[in-house]
Amino acid sequence: MNSAFSLMDKVALITGGSYGIGFAIAEGFAKAGATIVFNDISQELVDKGLSAYKDAGIKSYGYVCDVTDEAAVNALVAKIEKEIGVIDILVNNAGIIKRVPMIEMSASDFRKVIDVDLNAPFIVSKAVIPSMIKKGHGKIINICSMMSELGRETVSAYAAAKGGLKMLTRNICSEYGQHNIQCNGLGPGYIATPQTAPLREKQADGSMHPFDAFIRAKTPANRWGNPEDLVGPAVFLASCASDFVNGHILYVDGGILAYIGRQP
Ligand code: NAP
Ligand code: GCO
Q: Ligand 2 test: best mutation among 100, 102, 154, 190, most atoms within 8 Å of CB?
């Protein structure tokens, strides 16, 4: 059974993998035997990631690449294939969020979120699929969100992107499943990372941010998730244990989507 979850001899590209959820998933992939390749938007972040992977005992390969830049992504994939090997597993993890009431959000800010959270997974998937087809297999994992299913105030661009990412996932499944490529989504709940730090920060009076109580009341597990909570599900979706799972969004949310919320 262990071999079903092995990633031995697989090359895994995790976009935005210097820290946070991407880093945790990559760490889990490395423990399962994968070669870790990641990119981030600046050399400073790539260096930070290389150092963090080294501290974790993981040899990794880091590249500077803005995932919204198609020419840069195509050059990155060609460089990885030349220097390391064909990408067997792609995790479209890089993402941004802007929390602004919709009618106050500029169209350019809306486009920026769509560009990173939806257009980039299209660009990177399009770059890696041809070699996966030639190789006869591939795994694509798109990091979706609660906002792939639910809305909330101030995250209109992010929810539109993550909702679209759910459907892009299903479309890649539909078009490339015949080539033994599985494309699934991983839908984290509310996870304690820099991205959600503004929702968890201590208030001036020392109390927790109101959002903290809100999320705990909406989560049967009564806690925020940690990046490590995503590792097992990610290894499952990256391994041959999930070869007949395709177009699925696996929510790792502590039960939020199943729960109306804690009664008063
Ligand atoms: P994070 O802390 O903001 O990390 C996102 C990573 O992506 C950062 O390293 C970021 O670099 C990088 N990135 C942003 N734009 C990029 C670009 N254009 N090109 C390359 N890299 C880029 O977020 P996280 O919490 O770890 O989330 C990772 C993924 O999970 C995101 O897709 C997010 O939407 C999703 N997610 C998060 C949660 C949560 O509760 N945390 C829940 C559901 C889904 P910079 O630091 O330079 O921006
Ligand atoms: C927010 C949060 C969420 C989480 C995540 C939930 O402002 O509501 O940032 O969007 O990041 O996507 O699954």
A: 190
Q: Is-contact 166 147, C-beta < 8 A?
A: no
Percentage, residues of the chain above pLDDT 90: 98
Residue 2 is predicted with a pLDDT of 76
Residue 57: how many other CB atoms lie within 10 Å: 9
- The domain ranges of the chain are 2-192+226-258
Task: Considering the candidates 19, 53, 61, 158, report the single residue annotated as catalytic.
Answer: 158
pLDDT tens per residue, range 74-122: 999 999 999 999 999 999 999 999 999 999 999 999 999 999 999 999 9
Rounded to whole angstroms, how far apart are CA atoms 94 and 17? 7
| pTM greater than 0.70 (yes/no) | yes
The encoded tokens of residue 9 equal 């001899």
Q: 196: Cβ below 6 Å to ligand 2?
A: yes
158 catalytic? Reply is: yes
The alpha carbon dihedral of 69, 75, 76, 77 has a sign of positive
Atom of ligand 1 nearest to the CA of 42: 47
H/E stretch holding 185 reads strand 181-188
- What span, in angstroms and rounded, lies between the C-alpha atoms of 253 and 263? 19
In CATH, what class is 2-192+226-258?
A: alpha beta
Q: Which ligand is nearest to the CA of 193?
A: 1
Give me 66's structure tokens.
């803005």
**DSSP H helices in 136-230:** 156-176, 210-218
